[in-house]
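Fold it.
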Amino acid sequence: MGRRYFSAEFKTEAVRQVVELRRPKAQVARDLGVHINVLKSWLNAYAKDPVGAFTGESVAAIERSEIARLQKELQRVRAERDILKKMQTRTSPKTSSEVRLHGAPRARLAARVAVCRAGRLPQRLLRVAHSR
């Protein structure tokens, strides 16, 4: 005699008879033609995960797919972080007293508007930098 396979609906109905209808396990097992230990294993599976006990989508499978999704996202975020680190090291000054001047196009109008809003100190810095 080979191994018997039961559908999810069959298992769910067997568990429902024991849990909801409060029928004895031995009687349900006899009526359905399954061994009582098989029925107990179905009841244990149902107790662990009532939603996905017999559907194949158990909590563990859902968690595995969520872990895989999070690992992909972590890999993407780490790559973005590494890119930002490389950019930061290229643009940061070499010493704490160094002030970098960017070689931006000489748009005097835009620079003057920004300087006027900033106050007098940036005007002095720009004058010193421009005179060099």
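The helical segments are 8-19, 25-32, 36-48, 59-91, 108-118, 120-131.
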